[in-house]
Write a structure and sequence with these properties.
The chain is built from five helices and five strands; from the N terminus they run E-H-H-E-E-E-H-E-H-H. The chain is α+β, with helices and mostly antiparallel strands. It has a single domain, classed as Aminopeptidase. Helix 3 links the parallel strand 4 and strand 5.
């Protein structure tokens, strides 16, 4: 997740709207930019077909929005619902959020976060959550300034690739 400040260009309003299926190539370009920023370009294996199935298939796994400045895509977010079993209520997890490098510092990240917060509130979510790379101090400062709190109670774990295959074969 990348959001930085420092650009002093005049602030223009960004229009945030849901991704249209025909805009998947734009989304994949932005995902590539996020992967480059996060030093993880080697991990990107998404294809237009798989993204279409993930976002618009019979059982969509996530949703996406694009931020537009006129006819230029300048930001995006991909998000999905979680469930708090303690509250028996949904939450909103932000998988990706990016403001393109040339447009950082104009308030577009805040516009995007406000849009997502509006979705969360309208859907009865108890909160929003996301992860940020520990070295991305500008993003951490940005999120903190919005009122986000660093969750120090939980450590994240992941199983994937061969380890996931190995685990599933033990059923």
């Amino acid at each position: 997740m990348a959001e930085q400040s420092g650009n002093t260009a005049p602030r223009e309003q960004v229009l945030v709207r849901p991704l249209d299926p025909g805009e998947i190539p734009i989304l994949l370009t932005l995902i590539g930019e996020l992967a480059d920023f996060e030093r993880m370009a080697h991990r990107v294996t998404a294809t237009p077909e798989r993204m279409r199935a993930a976002l618009f298939g019979p059982t969509p796994f996530a949703e996406a929005v694009l931020g537009w400045l006129g006819d230029e895509p300048v930001a995006y977010a991909v998000y999905y619902h979680t469930l708090s079993t303690f509250a028996a209520a949904p939450g909103l997890y932000i998988e990706d959020i990016l403001v393109r490098e040339a447009h950082r510092g104009n308030g577009y990240g805040e516009i995007l976060m406000r849009h997502l917060a509006g979705i969360a509130v309208s859907r009865g979510c108890t909160g929003m959550s996301w992860s940020v790379l520990s070295w991305n101090r500008r993003a951490i400062n940005f999120y903190t300034a919005l009122g986000a709190e660093h969750n120090t109670e939980w450590d994240a774990y992941k199983i994937s690739g061969q380890a996931l295959s190995n685990l599933s074969s033990k059923i």
